[in-house]
Amino acid sequence: MENHFVEALKHNDEQIIKELYDNYRNSFLGFSKKYNIAKADSLDIYQEAFLAMRKHAISGKLLEVNSSFKTYLFGIGKHLIYKKLKEYASKRSYEQVLHKVESDYEEIVIESPDKLTKEQELLRHYFKQLGNSCQQMLTLSFYRGLTNEEIATLEGYENEAVVRSQKSRCLKTLKNLIKNPPK
What we know:
Blueprint (H helix, E strand, L loop, with lengths): L2 H8 L3 H20 L5 H21 L9 H36 L13 H10 L4 H12 L4 H8 L4 H20 L4
Helix pairs in contact: 1-3, 2-3, 2-4, 3-4, 6-8, 7-8
């Protein structure tokens, strides 16, 4: 790696850093086009990759690198592009599933002649006070009956352990709201 670039990043040489940033920006945007990434996302990814380069320079990781500055920067960018494509895929599949469900089935409305029990009313009231992510998590899990693995795939979580942890926190919050209502 070009040692003077590493030193500039390490010691915050603003002039060289600005030149580096500007010199590789358009090349990176051209490179990212072949992955069908939105331009705004490409710009974010480039900035994130450049910041990662700076962190690596400060930590000394770049001293051991044998590739050029551009190759290493684009390598980080490519990893971030793949991460973004994975996000796109999970959102797209959820939207496709949702659209298919909405278009293939007519809505079923069940009207119960009985009133909700006191416990059901409490649950409904405090469920609405949870954040959107907790409502979504608990709905997918308990109402739609999806497994933790299915939720991880659908919502783009890293793995099912993250879903399990998030679901546990959401349930704990709901239980605390019901047991100790805010005054």
